Amino acid sequence: MQFRARLTLAPFNFEIITDLPLVAGNLCKMYPDSIRHNESLIDYSLTVTKGQGIRRLFKPQARFFADTQEPFQPLQLQQGYAMLEWGMNWCIAAHEMQYVIIHSAVLAKGDKAILFPAPPGSGKSTLTAYLAFNGWRLLSDEMALILPFSNKVQPFVRPICLKNRSIALAKSWFPTGVFSSIATDTHKGDVVHLSPPAASWQGALQQAEIVAVVFPSYQADTNLDIYSLDQTQAFMQLARNAFNFGVIGQEGFATLTAIIEQVPAFEVQYNDLKAVAAFLEQEVLADAR
Fold it and tell me: Do 155 and 80 have their domain in common?
């Protein structure tokens, strides 16, 4: 049976089509208030389907299509839902040029937001989950949508992608959290998605002002080390994490430059999430008021 629905995730609308019960079940679980069975306008039509031919019977695979494009190689069937989440990221990163897009988590208190750009393996998503379930509003786990020539960031609220050891930690920290099924043995290891608290979904239309940029790095032997970055260091690191910086040219350069000139930037090495949260709240946000 084919599942078809419209997924409203401001500022975008997706049409999702799948014949995989795993994908349909996870969508209904993770996005219960965002699914629409109507004919609203869509930005992207996405399909996750079983592989054809012998692959339907022998080691079945999932395939992802964005309209008629197939940007990824097929994956194991049990990785189909994770594939869809990554596919939504790909659509926005590859096609949306009305924002300056940074590979970054974004969390806010009220209308004051902090960017957390970081490469894979930095512990960004674990920190994101901890903050989101401890009084912060999640705007995004994966990408900051910055309005050009401003320090405003647009929420793009989606589940938090957790990997490997972080999965067990999150399930112990948040026993009532809503988790997707686990996709095992992906190129990122084992992967699960965690729905953020209701307050984050409710704030999905509320833009926020960027007041700081923090580059997090989990270090098992470091309680908390904080380094203040100068503007050149901060700009270079931020630009390295930009998805469309080279495409939108002057617009992107001017936007990132203005942000770095206006807000502080830090590199934070840590193994104590409570210490990071205290630094952010008592020093970074306090100075932004």
Answer: no
Cα–Cα distance for residue pair 135/133, rounded to 1 Å: 6
Q: What is the DSSP secondary structure assignment for residue 232, as one 8-state letter?
A: H
174 domain residue, yes or no: no
Same domain assignment for residues 220 and 151: yes
Can you tell me the distance from the alpha carbon of 174 to that of 168, in angstroms, rounded to the nearest whole number? 10
In a domain, 177, yes or no: no
Furthest-apart CA pair in the chain: how many Å?
61
Q: Which domain holds residue 154?
A: 100-159+196-288
d(CA 98, CA 91): 13
Which residues are 240's β-sheet partners?
none
List pLDDT tens digits, range 115-156: 999 887 788 999 999 999 999 999 999 999 999 999 999 999
135 and 40, same structural domain?
no
> What are 116's strand-pairing partners?
105
214: β partners: 266
**Residue 41, helix vs strand vs coil:** coil
Cα 237 to Cα 267: distance, rounded to the nearest angstrom? 10
Rounded CA-CA distance 57/76 in Å is 12
Is 17 domain-assigned? yes
Number of domains into which the chain is organized: 2
Q: What is the pLDDT of residues 69-119, one digit of tens each?
A: 999 999 999 999 999 999 999 999 999 999 999 999 999 999 999 999 988
Q: Note whether 23 and 90 are same-domain residues.
A: yes
